Amino acid sequence: MKTSRSLVLFAAALAAIGFTGCMSPESRIEKNPQLFASYSPAQQDLIKQGKVAIGFDMDAVRLALGAPDRVRTRVTNDGNSENWVYVTYETTDGQPLYRGWYHRYYMRGDPIYPWYETFPTRREREHFHVVFDHAGKVTAIEQDTR
């Protein structure tokens, strides 16, 4: 009896960890209703669709797209900028690989996908970049068109 209860608790903990990995804009909005309410109606519509626009702040991008897979900084004559990179996985012939909630885990705050580490024809593709200026506002958006 005690063993089965421990297994149930362990399974519930694993499920909770797994569900935090891949969240939709709706679930991120539900977790942050006051933050979402602070944006204009036009911004709210974009966030609900999982889209971002020039002028968004970092919190709005997080609501719309979730945590980035990578963060890069750039120093130029114009100042510092931060580039958030969103990654997808695909086979070498370009077929996308599923990145669902049970494939994404976090280690030290960074998302990892252990399922795809052993996938024989896996390749990583940076499909979306969001660039922020020194004030934390979106100044550029770059995404694949394919």
Structure at a glance:
With 146 residues, this protein is of the alpha+beta class. It has 6 helices and 6 strands.
Descriptive overview:
The chain has 146 residues and is an alpha+beta fold. It has one domain. The chain has helices at 2-19, 25-31, 33-37, 41-48, 58-65, 114-117; strands at residues 70-76, 79-91, 105-107, 110-112, 122-132, 138-143. The strands form 2 sheets. The chain has a 4-stranded antiparallel β-sheet, with no helix packed on it. A two-stranded antiparallel sheet has the order 3-4. α4 runs parallel beside α5 (58-65). The longest helix has 18 residues, at 2-19. The protein is globular.
What is the total tally of β strands?
A: 6
Roughly what fraction of the amino acids lie in strands? 25-35%
> Span from first to last CA?
54 Å
How many alpha or pi helices?
6
Query: Can you tell me the overall shape?
Result: globular
Helical amount: 25-40%
What is the averaged pLDDT score? 77
Secondary-structure class: alpha+beta
Task: Profile the largest sheet.
Answer: 4 strands, antiparallel
What is the total number of structural domains?
1
Write the H/E string, N to C: HHHHHEEEEHEE
Strand order of the largest sheet: 1-2-5-6
Q: What would you report as the Rg, rounded to the nearest angstrom? A: 18 Å
As residue ranges, the low-confidence spans are 6-21
